[in-house]
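Hey, can you fold this one?
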Amino acid sequence: MSVAFCEYLATKELTQPDNLILISPWVDVSMSGDYEDYKDLDPMLGVVALHKAGEAWVGDLDSKDYKVSPLFGDVEKLPSTTIFLGTDEVLYPDIMKFYNKLKENGVDVKLIVGEKLPHVYPIFPGIPESKEAFNQIVEILLD
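Sure. Predicted structure:
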């Protein structure tokens, strides 16, 4: 939602936030990617369930409308962006496409990948990678 909101702000030529911090963002609600290599790694998200949730979320919009699938939006005016993702999440391929699109469009973007970690790992209490991600987020916000 935060990416789609920033893309919307850009369409209205409104001020962007200084930083956009994304934790395992769902950037393609249409689920149009190839998830074969990731579907059995993710202990939290399943492709079929995501398809159903996506259909409910989209409502009357096209599933590739940037308002629900920011991967397909104009990213050129997005603010400095930090993306956290785990290698063991089903959304990994889409997030990587999004990251590459940001880079190709000149967005100041940083990718922080948690090796062998699942969806939204930065919010899990008690794991060292979560504490490290929290400290990185605080550093971004205080900078």
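The two ends are 24 Å apart (CA to CA). Let me know if you want another pass with a different chain boundary.
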